[in-house]
Amino acid sequence: MENVFNKFFNDYDDWYQTPVGQFVDQAETQTLVKLLQPKAQQKILDVGCGTGNFTIKLAQQDCQVTGVDIAPNMLQQARQKLQQQQLTAQLKIMNVEKLSFLDNSFNAAFSMAAFEFINDIQSAYQEMWRVVQPGGHIVIGTIQKNGSWANFYESPACHGTAYEFAHFWTAEQLIALDPKHFVQQKDCLFLPPNLPENNYNLKADQNAAQTTNIGGFTCLLFQK
C-alpha cells in the first residue's frame, strides 16, 4: 500500500470544508451507508481510515469501529478529532495486505478511497474477507476509472498531489476480486469536477445520473 498520505496529510481535511468537498462527503457517505447498513454495537473495520472521516461517522452511530492505516500522521489527526468529539474508536498502524486481526473478528469491513493506493488489491480484499464474520458485509468504495473524477485526477492539473500516485479501477475489475460473493453496486458523483460550487448538491447529482453512465465514485458490496 502506497504511504503517500503520510506526506500529503496537512491540508487533507481542509477540502472537506469547501462546498464541493461537503457535497462529495455527503454523496459518498450516503452511498456507503446504504450498502454497509451499519448497526449500533457492530464491530466494523475501516481500512485506510486516514484522518478518520468515516470512522468518526460510524462511531457517532455507536458502532465499535477499528480504523487501520499506514500513515501515522493521518492517524494522529484522527485521534485528535475523536478526542475533540469525545468519541471512541481503535486506531492502528497496519497494512491491509497483512492484517494482524484474528479470523472472523468483525461484523463488517469497508474501505473508502484507499484501494487506489493499494499495491495488491487481491490480497487486501482477501484479508478483509478473512477478518469478517460469515454473513458480514464488505464494501469497497473507490474513485471509478473512466469516470469524470478519475479523469480529472489523472490529468496534469493534479500532478504534485497524492493522486499522482493513484491507480484507478473499474467496477468490473473490483467485482472480479470475488464475483461469487458480489451483491450490489451503487454509484455517486455523477456531476463532474470543476463546476461552479453552487451546482453541487445531492438532488442535482441524482438528476445527472439519468444522463451519465458512470459515477465518479462507486461502492461495491460483497457478502461473506
Automatic annotation (TrEMBL):
Specify one Pfam family.
Methyltransf_11
The Methyltransferase type domain extends over 45-140
Extract the InterPro entries matched here.
Methyltransf_11, SAM-dependent_MTases_sf
Q: A single Gene Ontology molecular function, please?
A: S-adenosylmethionine-dependent methyltransferase activity
Superkingdom of source: Bacteria
The molecule here is called: Methyltransferase type 11 domain-containing protein
Q: Which organism is it from?
A: Bombilactobacillus bombi
